[in-house]
Write a structure and sequence with these properties.
By secondary structure, the protein is mainly α. It has a single domain, classed as Proton glutamate symport protein (Orthogonal Bundle), CATH 1.10.3860. The protein is 80% helix and 0% strand. It is built from 14 helices and no strands.
């Protein structure tokens, strides 16, 4: 399985087990990356079917998705009690050390997101043909929505409006690039999720070899593409647990980290919204055939 390969089988063994021969067995053995690879291949294969054969599959998986989201909402209703009980147990045993651990975790993930956001600003100026001040000021309303909702999907209307009015992105480009970016371009998710797994591995003293890094990186990218732009409290386990399993990292501490996930998730969403707007501006800049706007540096 991938987890065993990541732990000590080497890159060759990892690549050999990338595509599972038996998806059901892969699910039983927690071969998360293999399941993700199979799901992606299955999804592409479904697109090759005719409309009449594809429709029942789409309806079935949409029903399954809505059912799972309902279950997640039920779990979230009980989650505060569970997190409180878990936090109390940890606090009684570890005292203020637990508070320091959570503070260290939040600081590490938030700093990783801030570094990525700064990199986005640095990239959009030359590639998007826009001044830093204009871009930074133009995306503030969308970032405020991202801060308050912690959802890229909920921020989409504000993103489209600001892209058109403040960043000079045409309506066709904004209408195409931004919804697509919200669906598949979550630039902060792989970075943040890997940061969580690395921190958990450090807590448990797990050494991560090259194969584990490859498995974790591929899983993080695949999960970020396939996930929905919902608040992190809903998608935290779905996004992080598969990466932990693929890299051979224990998942027992994840419920405790969920208690403070709201803070890192704010920066995740702001980073994703910033990256989506930067992508729209870059596409607009590359498609422009005229000379650069003389007011671009304002």
């Amino acid at each position: 399985v991938v987890r065993e390969s990541a732990a000590g089988g080497g890159v060759a063994a990892f690549l050999a087990n990338l595509a599972p021969a038996n998806p059901v067995r892969a699910a039983v053995e927690d071969n998360i990356l293999g399941i993700v690879v199979f799901a992606i291949a299955f999804g592409f294969a479904v697109t090759r079917l005719g409309p009449s054969r594809r429709a029942p599959l789409v309806e079935f998986f949409e029903a399954v998705s809505e059912t799972m989201i309902t279950i997640v909402h039920w779990v979230l209703l009980a989650a505060p009690l569970g997190v409180f009980a878990l936090s109390m147990g940890v606090g009684l045993n570890a005292g203020l050390g637990a508070l320091g651990t959570l503070g260290h975790y939040v600081s590490m993930v938030v700093l990783a997101q801030i570094g990525l956001i700064v990199l986005i600003y640095a990239v959009v100026v030359p590639w998007g043909r826009i001044g830093l001040a204009r871009f930074a000021q133009g995306i503030i309303p969308a970032q405020v929505v991202a801060f308050s909702t912690q959802s890229s999907l909920a921020s989409l209307p504000a993103m489209v409006e600001q892209a058109r009015l403040a960043l000079g992105v045409s309506t066709p480009t904004a209408g195409l690039v931004l919804p697509l970016a919200v669906a598949v371009f979550r630039i902060t998710s792989p970075v943040a999720n890997l940061a969580v797994v690395i921190y958990v591995a450090h807590l448990h003293g797990v050494d991560l070899g090259p194969a584990a890094w490859v498995a974790g990186g591929l899983t993080a990218i695949a999960i970020s593409i396939g996930s929905v732009g919902l608040p992190g409290q809903i998608s935290f386990f779905v996004s992080v647990a598969p990466i932990c399993l693929a890299m051979g990292v224990p998942i027992q501490v994840l419920p405790l980290l969920l208690a403070v996930e709201v803070i890192p998730d704010i920066f995740r969403t702001i980073g994703n919204v910033t990256g989506d707007l930067a992508a729209a501006r870059i596409v607009e800049g590359r498609d422009a055939t005229a000379e650069p706007d003389p007011t671009a540096g304002i």
